[in-house]
Amino acid sequence: MSDHEDVELNLLYETPAHRAPIQTTTPKPSENLSHSKPSNSVNDLADAVSLFKTVIDSQFASLSEKLLSEQKASAKSLTKKIKDSKASRIQGDGNRIQFSFNEEIIDDLDNLCTVLSDSSATTIINEIKEKLLKRNKLIRIADGSPAGWRTVREYEQNDYAEDSDDDKKIRSAESRALRQKFRGRGRGTPYSRPVSAAAGSQAQLPTSGFGGTSYNQPFRSFGGSRRTPQPSDVCHRCFKTGHWKSRCPLNYSQPSSGFSATNATGGQ
């Protein structure tokens, strides 16, 4: 038997315990941990920061929405109080109802403007609001003027310079409306209702002449009592109320006119 055959037989009969261990190379645990630990810690930190930012953003958005809602509610309440105060100062029931209705329409148009984003639609809404605001202004002018809607007509029909004060325009329109109102009554209106003379007046003094007419009376009649000026009577000289043309203060300020209030014999 040769040496080569002896070696093969020894290998066949050799037990595993007698065999030489197989050398294998395995990575050390310390080497794997050294590469994985930094990357995992960075990812965890990034996740924590992202989560914290998400929570903060959510809380901030919720707080902003709450503050905005409270601010809108407060502004709406204040606006309603202001409008109610304006409406309460209007004396006429019809004017007040119309004014309040127009204010409600204006509020609805404001809400519609916040919803719509179309510029053309917003322009139309703003034009409607301007008309309603102008109408409410005219209602307040008519309600606060003794001449009522006559003042509004004068205010709208007469144009002034753009730099003219609006209050001045209203007062001027009111004066013209009052003059037209009193002129429309006619000259005979103050004499249509005879009023009994007060005690001690000239109408109760002894009279002389035909028909019992006193020559001291500024208005002559046949047997009737003399009517005294009323607060609603209008002077056709200065267009003020409370006196007649014969006793107008302008007569005393112009002595060269040839007559005085005490010698006047005509009517207004």
UniProtKB/TrEMBL annotation:
**Chain positions covered by the region annotation Disordered:** 1-40, 183-212
- UniProt biased composition (Polar residues): 22-40, 199-212
A GO MF label: zinc ion binding
Classification via Gene3D superfamilies = Zinc finger, CCHC-type
Q: What is this protein called?
A: Uncharacterized protein LOC111108323 isoform X2
